[in-house]
Amino acid sequence: NSLNDIEKNLKIGNINYFQIYEDVLSNIWEFVIPQSELYNNLFNEALTSMKPDYVIGARVRRLFERASFVAARTKNIKTGIVLHSTFGTVIDDFYLTGHFDLINDAFVWGKNHKNMIESDKLSRNCNVHVVGSVDFTKEETFYSERRKDGKFRILYAATSKGELNEINCIVNAAQKLPNTEIIVKTHPNVQGNIYNKFSKSSKVKVVTEKRQIETMMSNIDLFISTYSGSHIYAAIQGVPILLLAFNSFVENDLREIYGLSHAKYDTIVTTKRKKLVKIINDLVSNKNSTLEIIMKQQEEYINNFIYLQNSEKDVINGISKILELEKETK
User: Fold this and answer.
1) E strands along the chain, which residues?
2) What is the mean predicted confidence (pLDDT) over 233-245?
3) Mind listing the pLDDT tens digit for each residue in 200-213?
4) Which one-letter DSSP state was computed for residue 239?
5) pTM, 2 dp
6) Residue 94, beta-bridge partner list
7) Residues 169-206: b if buried by 16+ CB within 10 A, e if exposed
8) For position 144, what pLDDT does the model report?
Protein backbone atom coordinates (compact mmCIF):
# COMPACT_ATOMS: atom_id res chain seq x y z
CA ASN A 1 0.00 0.00 0.00
CA SER A 2 2.76 2.47 0.90
CA LEU A 3 4.41 1.97 -2.50
CA ASN A 4 1.09 2.59 -4.23
CA ASP A 5 0.65 5.76 -2.17
CA ILE A 6 4.09 6.98 -3.23
CA GLU A 7 3.29 6.30 -6.88
CA LYS A 8 -0.03 8.11 -6.52
CA ASN A 9 1.63 11.17 -4.94
CA LEU A 10 4.30 11.27 -7.64
CA LYS A 11 1.76 11.36 -10.44
CA ILE A 12 1.40 15.05 -11.20
CA GLY A 13 -0.89 16.02 -14.03
CA ASN A 14 -0.33 13.59 -16.87
CA ILE A 15 3.26 12.78 -15.84
CA ASN A 16 4.08 9.71 -13.72
CA TYR A 17 7.29 10.76 -11.97
CA PHE A 18 7.35 7.49 -10.06
CA GLN A 19 8.06 5.58 -13.27
CA ILE A 20 10.74 8.08 -14.24
CA TYR A 21 12.60 7.83 -10.91
CA GLU A 22 11.68 4.29 -9.88
CA ASP A 23 15.25 3.01 -10.33
CA VAL A 24 16.70 5.56 -7.89
CA LEU A 25 13.98 5.54 -5.24
CA SER A 26 15.59 2.55 -3.50
CA ASN A 27 18.77 4.59 -3.07
CA ILE A 28 16.79 7.30 -1.29
CA TRP A 29 15.49 4.85 1.34
CA GLU A 30 18.68 2.80 1.56
CA PHE A 31 21.30 5.58 1.55
CA VAL A 32 20.04 9.18 1.42
CA ILE A 33 17.56 9.11 4.32
CA PRO A 34 19.82 7.09 6.71
CA GLN A 35 22.81 9.33 5.91
CA SER A 36 20.74 12.45 6.44
CA GLU A 37 19.53 11.14 9.79
CA LEU A 38 23.10 10.27 10.82
CA TYR A 39 24.45 13.70 9.85
CA ASN A 40 21.55 15.48 11.52
CA ASN A 41 22.14 13.62 14.81
CA LEU A 42 25.86 14.36 14.56
CA PHE A 43 25.29 18.10 14.14
CA ASN A 44 22.64 18.24 16.84
CA GLU A 45 25.17 16.86 19.31
CA ALA A 46 28.01 19.07 17.99
CA LEU A 47 25.97 22.27 18.11
CA THR A 48 24.65 21.47 21.58
CA SER A 49 28.21 21.02 22.78
CA MET A 50 29.90 23.89 20.89
CA LYS A 51 27.11 26.52 20.94
CA PRO A 52 28.40 28.50 17.91
CA ASP A 53 26.97 31.80 16.72
CA TYR A 54 26.98 30.73 13.06
CA VAL A 55 27.16 27.62 10.91
CA ILE A 56 28.77 28.34 7.55
CA GLY A 57 29.24 25.97 4.62
CA ALA A 58 30.35 26.10 0.99
CA ARG A 59 27.61 24.07 -0.72
CA VAL A 60 23.85 24.28 -0.47
CA ARG A 61 22.71 20.86 -1.57
CA ARG A 62 25.25 18.35 -0.20
CA LEU A 63 23.72 16.13 2.50
CA PHE A 64 26.45 16.82 5.05
CA GLU A 65 26.15 20.59 4.90
CA ARG A 66 22.39 20.65 4.45
CA ALA A 67 22.06 18.56 7.62
CA SER A 68 24.20 21.13 9.43
CA PHE A 69 21.87 23.92 8.28
CA VAL A 70 18.74 22.03 9.35
CA ALA A 71 20.24 21.31 12.77
CA ALA A 72 21.33 24.93 13.15
CA ARG A 73 17.91 26.32 12.24
CA THR A 74 16.19 24.08 14.81
CA LYS A 75 18.47 25.62 17.45
CA ASN A 76 18.00 29.22 16.17
CA ILE A 77 21.61 29.40 15.05
CA LYS A 78 22.19 31.51 11.93
CA THR A 79 23.47 29.85 8.78
CA GLY A 80 25.65 31.08 5.94
CA ILE A 81 27.20 30.07 2.62
CA VAL A 82 30.54 31.15 1.17
CA LEU A 83 30.25 30.09 -2.47
CA HIS A 84 33.04 27.72 -3.48
CA SER A 85 32.11 27.96 -7.15
CA THR A 86 29.78 29.73 -9.54
CA PHE A 87 26.33 28.18 -9.99
CA GLY A 88 25.10 29.51 -13.31
CA THR A 89 22.86 32.27 -14.55
CA VAL A 90 19.48 30.66 -15.29
CA ILE A 91 16.73 29.39 -12.99
CA ASP A 92 17.28 25.74 -14.00
CA ASP A 93 20.67 25.81 -12.24
CA PHE A 94 18.93 25.75 -8.85
CA TYR A 95 18.00 22.13 -9.51
CA LEU A 96 21.72 21.33 -9.52
CA THR A 97 22.91 23.76 -6.86
CA GLY A 98 19.95 23.71 -4.51
CA HIS A 99 17.78 26.53 -3.18
CA PHE A 100 18.99 28.86 -0.43
CA ASP A 101 15.91 28.25 1.70
CA LEU A 102 17.89 27.25 4.82
CA ILE A 103 20.49 30.02 4.50
CA ASN A 104 20.39 33.31 6.42
CA ASP A 105 23.37 34.89 4.65
CA ALA A 106 24.96 34.08 1.29
CA PHE A 107 28.38 35.56 0.55
CA VAL A 108 28.68 35.65 -3.23
CA TRP A 109 31.18 36.59 -5.92
CA GLY A 110 29.31 39.34 -7.76
CA LYS A 111 26.07 40.88 -9.01
CA ASN A 112 25.17 37.88 -11.18
CA HIS A 113 25.00 35.59 -8.14
CA LYS A 114 23.10 38.18 -6.10
CA ASN A 115 20.48 38.65 -8.84
CA MET A 116 20.10 34.89 -9.25
CA ILE A 117 19.42 34.18 -5.58
CA GLU A 118 17.14 37.17 -5.09
CA SER A 119 15.06 36.17 -8.12
CA ASP A 120 14.39 32.67 -6.70
CA LYS A 121 11.08 32.45 -4.83
CA LEU A 122 12.40 29.67 -2.56
CA SER A 123 15.45 31.71 -1.55
CA ARG A 124 13.85 35.03 -0.68
CA ASN A 125 14.56 34.78 3.05
CA CYS A 126 18.28 34.71 2.31
CA ASN A 127 20.31 37.90 2.72
CA VAL A 128 22.81 38.15 -0.15
CA HIS A 129 26.13 39.96 0.27
CA VAL A 130 28.53 40.63 -2.62
CA VAL A 131 32.01 40.11 -1.14
CA GLY A 132 34.06 38.65 -4.01
CA SER A 133 35.96 35.36 -3.78
CA VAL A 134 39.08 34.27 -1.91
CA ASP A 135 40.01 32.29 -5.02
CA PHE A 136 40.02 35.33 -7.30
CA THR A 137 41.64 38.56 -6.11
CA LYS A 138 44.01 41.17 -7.55
CA GLU A 139 46.96 39.51 -5.84
CA GLU A 140 49.44 38.15 -8.39
CA THR A 141 50.21 34.93 -6.57
CA PHE A 142 51.69 32.88 -9.38
CA TYR A 143 52.10 35.21 -12.34
CA SER A 144 55.63 36.54 -12.86
CA GLU A 145 57.74 38.42 -15.39
CA ARG A 146 57.88 36.90 -18.86
CA ARG A 147 60.96 35.15 -20.20
CA LYS A 148 62.43 37.15 -23.04
CA ASP A 149 63.07 34.29 -25.44
CA GLY A 150 60.65 35.58 -28.06
CA LYS A 151 58.54 32.42 -27.97
CA PHE A 152 54.75 32.71 -28.19
CA ARG A 153 53.16 30.32 -25.67
CA ILE A 154 49.60 29.02 -25.68
CA LEU A 155 48.23 27.25 -22.59
CA TYR A 156 45.23 25.00 -23.18
CA ALA A 157 43.20 23.96 -20.11
CA ALA A 158 41.45 20.69 -20.92
CA THR A 159 38.26 19.70 -19.13
CA SER A 160 36.87 16.25 -18.36
CA LYS A 161 35.59 16.09 -21.96
CA GLY A 162 39.13 15.74 -23.33
CA GLU A 163 38.53 18.08 -26.31
CA LEU A 164 40.80 16.39 -28.85
CA ASN A 165 39.12 18.23 -31.73
CA GLU A 166 39.69 21.64 -30.16
CA ILE A 167 43.35 20.88 -29.41
CA ASN A 168 43.82 19.58 -32.95
CA CYS A 169 42.51 22.89 -34.32
CA ILE A 170 44.97 24.84 -32.17
CA VAL A 171 47.90 22.65 -33.23
CA ASN A 172 46.98 23.04 -36.90
CA ALA A 173 46.63 26.82 -36.49
CA ALA A 174 50.06 27.14 -34.87
CA GLN A 175 51.84 24.54 -37.02
CA LYS A 176 53.14 27.00 -39.62
CA LEU A 177 53.75 29.87 -37.23
CA PRO A 178 57.33 30.51 -36.12
CA ASN A 179 58.52 30.16 -32.54
CA THR A 180 55.23 29.03 -30.99
CA GLU A 181 54.64 26.51 -28.22
CA ILE A 182 51.40 24.86 -27.10
CA ILE A 183 51.13 23.57 -23.52
CA VAL A 184 48.20 21.23 -22.87
CA LYS A 185 47.25 20.85 -19.20
CA THR A 186 45.20 17.67 -18.91
CA HIS A 187 42.20 17.29 -16.62
CA PRO A 188 42.89 15.05 -13.57
CA ASN A 189 39.91 12.82 -14.45
CA VAL A 190 41.14 12.10 -17.97
CA GLN A 191 43.88 9.65 -18.93
CA GLY A 192 46.82 11.62 -20.29
CA ASN A 193 47.62 9.04 -22.95
CA ILE A 194 44.72 10.22 -25.11
CA TYR A 195 46.97 13.16 -25.99
CA ASN A 196 49.91 11.01 -27.12
CA LYS A 197 49.58 11.97 -30.78
CA PHE A 198 50.02 15.63 -29.87
CA SER A 199 53.12 14.93 -27.78
CA LYS A 200 54.90 13.83 -30.95
CA SER A 201 54.83 17.41 -32.23
CA SER A 202 57.84 19.55 -31.38
CA LYS A 203 55.47 22.46 -30.75
CA VAL A 204 53.34 20.68 -28.14
CA LYS A 205 54.03 19.89 -24.49
CA VAL A 206 51.45 17.80 -22.62
CA VAL A 207 51.41 18.25 -18.84
CA THR A 208 49.73 15.30 -17.10
CA GLU A 209 51.00 15.62 -13.54
CA LYS A 210 48.64 16.94 -10.89
CA ARG A 211 49.46 20.58 -10.30
CA GLN A 212 47.47 23.77 -10.03
CA ILE A 213 47.07 25.27 -13.47
CA GLU A 214 47.41 28.71 -11.84
CA THR A 215 51.10 27.94 -11.31
CA MET A 216 51.50 27.61 -15.07
CA MET A 217 50.36 31.11 -15.99
CA SER A 218 53.87 32.60 -16.13
CA ASN A 219 55.13 33.33 -19.64
CA ILE A 220 51.77 32.55 -21.24
CA ASP A 221 50.70 34.73 -24.19
CA LEU A 222 47.27 33.17 -24.72
CA PHE A 223 45.03 31.01 -22.52
CA ILE A 224 42.56 28.77 -24.37
CA SER A 225 39.84 26.44 -23.09
CA THR A 226 36.22 25.53 -23.61
CA TYR A 227 34.59 26.19 -20.21
CA SER A 228 37.35 25.56 -17.63
CA GLY A 229 36.89 27.89 -14.66
CA SER A 230 40.63 28.59 -14.68
CA HIS A 231 39.99 31.13 -17.44
CA ILE A 232 38.80 33.47 -14.68
CA TYR A 233 42.20 33.42 -12.99
CA ALA A 234 43.98 33.91 -16.32
CA ALA A 235 41.84 36.93 -17.17
CA ILE A 236 42.38 38.49 -13.73
CA GLN A 237 46.14 38.02 -14.12
CA GLY A 238 46.06 39.84 -17.44
CA VAL A 239 46.59 36.79 -19.64
CA PRO A 240 44.54 37.05 -22.88
CA ILE A 241 41.83 34.39 -22.93
CA LEU A 242 39.98 32.63 -25.75
CA LEU A 243 37.08 30.24 -25.12
CA LEU A 244 36.13 27.77 -27.85
CA ALA A 245 32.42 27.09 -28.27
CA PHE A 246 32.52 24.91 -31.37
CA ASN A 247 29.32 23.09 -30.41
CA SER A 248 26.00 24.12 -28.93
CA PHE A 249 26.64 22.30 -25.63
CA VAL A 250 29.74 24.35 -24.79
CA GLU A 251 28.09 27.52 -26.05
CA ASN A 252 25.16 26.86 -23.72
CA ASP A 253 27.46 26.06 -20.76
CA LEU A 254 29.40 29.30 -21.19
CA ARG A 255 26.19 31.29 -21.33
CA GLU A 256 24.51 29.56 -18.39
CA ILE A 257 27.50 29.12 -16.06
CA TYR A 258 29.43 32.33 -16.69
CA GLY A 259 27.02 34.62 -18.51
CA LEU A 260 29.36 34.56 -21.51
CA SER A 261 27.97 34.68 -25.03
CA HIS A 262 29.58 35.01 -28.43
CA ALA A 263 27.09 37.76 -29.26
CA LYS A 264 28.37 40.01 -26.46
CA TYR A 265 32.02 38.90 -26.21
CA ASP A 266 32.83 37.99 -29.81
CA THR A 267 36.63 38.08 -29.42
CA ILE A 268 37.05 36.06 -26.22
CA VAL A 269 34.33 33.56 -27.16
CA THR A 270 34.44 32.05 -30.64
CA THR A 271 32.15 29.57 -32.33
CA LYS A 272 34.18 29.43 -35.55
CA ARG A 273 37.45 27.60 -36.19
CA LYS A 274 38.51 30.26 -38.69
CA LYS A 275 38.19 32.91 -35.96
CA LEU A 276 40.50 30.84 -33.73
CA VAL A 277 43.11 30.74 -36.49
CA LYS A 278 42.80 34.49 -37.12
CA ILE A 279 43.18 35.41 -33.43
CA ILE A 280 46.27 33.22 -33.01
CA ASN A 281 47.79 34.69 -36.19
CA ASP A 282 47.03 38.24 -35.05
CA LEU A 283 48.58 37.74 -31.61
CA VAL A 284 51.69 35.95 -32.89
CA SER A 285 52.24 38.76 -35.41
CA ASN A 286 51.77 41.38 -32.64
CA LYS A 287 48.59 42.85 -34.07
CA ASN A 288 47.81 45.13 -31.15
CA SER A 289 44.24 45.95 -32.18
CA THR A 290 43.15 42.32 -31.61
CA LEU A 291 44.97 42.16 -28.27
CA GLU A 292 43.35 45.42 -27.15
CA ILE A 293 39.86 44.12 -27.97
CA ILE A 294 40.51 40.88 -26.05
CA MET A 295 41.77 42.70 -22.98
CA LYS A 296 38.87 45.16 -23.04
CA GLN A 297 36.25 42.41 -23.35
CA GLN A 298 37.70 40.19 -20.64
CA GLU A 299 38.05 43.15 -18.25
CA GLU A 300 34.38 44.01 -18.78
CA TYR A 301 33.39 40.37 -18.28
CA ILE A 302 35.39 39.94 -15.05
CA ASN A 303 34.12 43.20 -13.56
CA ASN A 304 30.52 42.10 -14.17
CA PHE A 305 31.12 38.59 -12.88
CA ILE A 306 33.25 39.10 -9.76
CA TYR A 307 33.72 41.88 -7.25
CA LEU A 308 37.51 41.91 -7.27
CA GLN A 309 39.10 42.53 -3.88
CA ASN A 310 42.79 43.34 -3.47
CA SER A 311 43.55 40.25 -1.39
CA GLU A 312 42.08 37.16 0.29
CA LYS A 313 42.31 39.02 3.58
CA ASP A 314 40.00 41.75 2.26
CA VAL A 315 37.36 39.17 1.33
CA ILE A 316 37.59 37.47 4.72
CA ASN A 317 37.47 40.81 6.57
CA GLY A 318 34.37 41.80 4.59
CA ILE A 319 32.59 38.59 5.61
CA SER A 320 33.70 38.98 9.23
CA LYS A 321 32.37 42.53 9.47
CA ILE A 322 28.95 41.45 8.22
CA LEU A 323 28.83 38.56 10.70
CA GLU A 324 29.91 40.77 13.58
CA LEU A 325 27.29 43.39 12.71
CA GLU A 326 24.57 40.73 12.63
CA LYS A 327 25.79 39.36 15.94
CA GLU A 328 25.44 42.80 17.51
CA THR A 329 21.89 43.21 16.20
CA LYS A 330 20.84 39.66 17.08
Assistant:
1) 11-12, 15-16, 54-57, 78-82, 105-108, 127-130, 152-157, 180-185, 204-207, 222-225, 241-244, 269-270
2) 93
3) 888 999 998 888 88
4) -
5) 0.77
6) none
7) bbbebbeeeeebbbbbbbbeebebeebeebeeeeebeb
8) 47
